[in-house]
Amino acid sequence: MKIVDILIGKIKIPLKRPFKTALRTVYFAEDIIVKLLTRSGLVGYGSAAPTLAITGESSDSIISCLVNNLKPKIIGADLSNLEKVMNDLHSSFVNNTSALAAVDMAFYDLLAQSLNLPLYKYLGGYHNLVFTDLTISANSPEVMVADSLIALDEGFQDLKLKLGLNPSLDFVRVQAVRTAVGNKVKISLDANQAWGAKEAVRIIRRFEKLNLNIEFVEQPVKAKKLSDLRYVTQNVETDILADESVFSPYDALQLIHHKACDLLNIKLAKAGGIFNATKILNIAEAAGVECIVGCMLESQISVTAAAHFAAAKKSIVRCDLDSPSLLAENPIVGGAVVEANTLTLSETDAGLGIKEVLNVEYLKF
Ligand SMILES: C[C@H](N)C(=O)N[C@H](CCC(=O)O)C(=O)O
Ligand SMILES: [Mg+2]
Questions:
Q1: Fewest Cβ atoms nearer than 10 Å: which of 20, 124, 183, 276?
Q2: Claim to verify: residue 176 and residue 303 sit in the same structural domain
Q3: Do 111 and 221 have their domain in common?
Q4: How far is the CA of 291 from the centre of ligand 2 (A)?
Q5: CATH number of the domain that 329 lies in?
Q6: For the chain, which residues score pLDDT lower than 50?
Q7: How many distinct structural domains can be found in the chain?
Q8: Among candidates 75, 100, 105, 76, which has minimal Cα distance to 89?
Q9: What is the CA radius of gyration of the chain?
Q10: Could you tell me the keywords of this UniProt record (predicted)?
Q11: Does residue 25 sit in helix, strand or coil?
Q12: How confident is the model at residue 317, as a pLDDT?
C-alpha cells in the first residue's frame, strides 16, 4: 500500500472554559491535520496538537517537520513494510514527537482500513469501550468545586485536578473538592512538574494523613529530574504517575529500572505514535507496571487514535482521554462517539472511522 500524497491543514477549536495547568493557560485548541492518500484511494487521518511546554512543538514547527522531514520520506513509502518505514522515520530526527505521531496514526488508520477492520481490532481488539476521567483546570478552590460539580452532573465519576498554580493553595483546592463531591468520586492530581521533591512529599503526605483518598499524583516534579521523581515515589504511599518524564521506550525502561514511578502515562503525542507507544506498553507489562493512556488538549482525531490503542490492550486500566469533552465544538465527523465519560468505538467502521474534517484550511506548500 503506497502513499501518494499528504495534505496538511490547520484547525482552531474554542474551549468550553480556559484550560489552566501549572505549565500553560490555553483559550482555544489548535490542531494540525494530516490526511494521507494511497494509490488505491484510501484516506488516512492523523493530527498533532502544538504543546510547546511539553513536547517543544509549535504549529509552525509541526508543519515544518511534516513538510521538510516527513513528507519526502513518506511519499512513495509502502506500508506493507511498516517496520522498515517506522524505523526510518524514528531514526531520521529526534523530538518532533507530535508531528511523527500524526503520520504514525494515519499509517495505522490506513493499515486497518486495508483489512477492513476497526483500528482497535487490528491492534489487539480487547474491547470497544474506553472510560475517561475529566480534567478540572487549576483555579481558585471555589471555581474548582463548581467545575467538579458540573462534571459530576454531566456523568463523570473520575476527576483529575490540575494543581501547582500557586502551590500554597493546592491543599485547600483538593480538600474543598473532596468535601464537595463526597468519597465515591475518584480524584487524581496532576501538578505538571510544579513542586520540588521535598515539597511534593510534604503535600502528598498531608493528603494521606487527612484521608483525602487520592488515586494517584501525576508528574509532581520536573520531567528530567528522575532522582526527584524517585525520591517522591519512594517516600509517599500514594501512587505516582510519570507523564512528562516518559516520552520514549528508553524513558520507560529507565523509570521502571530506577523504581522512579508506580504508573506510566502513555500519550501518542509524546511517544511519536502507536508504534513506540506499543513498545512502552510492552516494557511496562513485562515489569508489571500499569499504564494510563492520556492526551494533550487535542482534537477528536488523535484522541480517537489513542482510544483505539487503549481499547486494543488488556493492560491499559485507565484513560485520561477527555480532550473532546473540554472542547466547545467538534469539527471532526466520525471517530469515537463521546458521551460523558465513555468513548465508544464502532465495531464496523474500518480504521479510525474519521469521515471528514469541517472548516479545515489545507495549506499550499
Ligand atoms: C487534556 C488532558 N486531560 C491533560 O490534562 N493533559 C495534560 C497536558 C495537556 C496540555 O497541556 O495540552 C497532562 O496530562 O499533563
Ligand atoms: Mg499530565
A1: 183
A2: yes
A3: no
A4: 13
A5: 3.20.20.120
A6: none
A7: 2
A8: 100
A9: 20
A10: Isomerase, Magnesium, Metal-binding
A11: strand
A12: 83
Q: What is the pLDDT of residues 104-157, one digit of tens each?
A: 999 999 999 999 999 999 999 999 999 999 999 999 999 999 999 999 999 999
pLDDT, tens only, 240-287: 999 999 999 999 999 999 999 999 999 999 999 999 999 999 999 999
The Cα–Cα gap between 201 and 322 comes to 28
Do 100 and 163 lie in one domain? The reply is no
| Ligand 1 close to Cβ of residue 203 (< 6 A) | no
Asked whether residue 42 falls in the same domain as residue 144, the answer is: no
Going from the C-alpha of 215 to that of each of 140, 185, 195, 242, the distances in angstroms are 22, 10, 18, 14
Q: Whose C-alpha lies nearest to ligand 1, atom 8?
A: 296
- CATH number, domain of 53, equals 3.30.390.10
93 found inside a domain: yes
Classify residue 277: in a domain, yes or no. Answer: yes
Ligand nearest, relative to CA of residue 54? 1
Active site residues: 162, 267
The residues with which 218 forms a beta bridge, in sequence order, are 190, 241
> Going by CA atoms, what residue is nearest to atom 15 of ligand 1?
192
Nearest CA to ligand 1 atom 4: 296
Q: Which atom of ligand 1 is nearest to 135's Cα?
A: 3
Domain range spanning residue 346?
A: 122-356
Give the domain-ending residue among 78, 95, 116.
116
Distance CA 140, CA 11 (A): 31
The pLDDT assigned to 205 comes to 97
Q: Please identify every residue whose CB atom is under 5 Å from ligand 2, which is an ion.
A: 190, 218, 243
> Which ligand ends up closest to the CA of 242?
2
Greatest distance between any 2 Cα atoms in the chain: 62
Nearest atom in ligand 1 to 162's CA: 5
Same domain, residue pair 105 and 37: yes
Give the pLDDT confidence score for residue 361 in this predicted structure: 87
Q: Is 296 in the pocket of ligand 1 (CB under 6 A)?
A: yes
Task: Note whether 59 and 134 are same-domain residues.
Answer: no
Give the model's pLDDT for residue 104. 98
- Residue 249: the pLDDT is 98
The answer to whether 47 and 33 have CB atoms below 8 angstroms apart is: yes
**Crossing angle of helices 141-154/170-181, nearest 10°?**
30
Domain closes at, from 89, 116, 143: 116
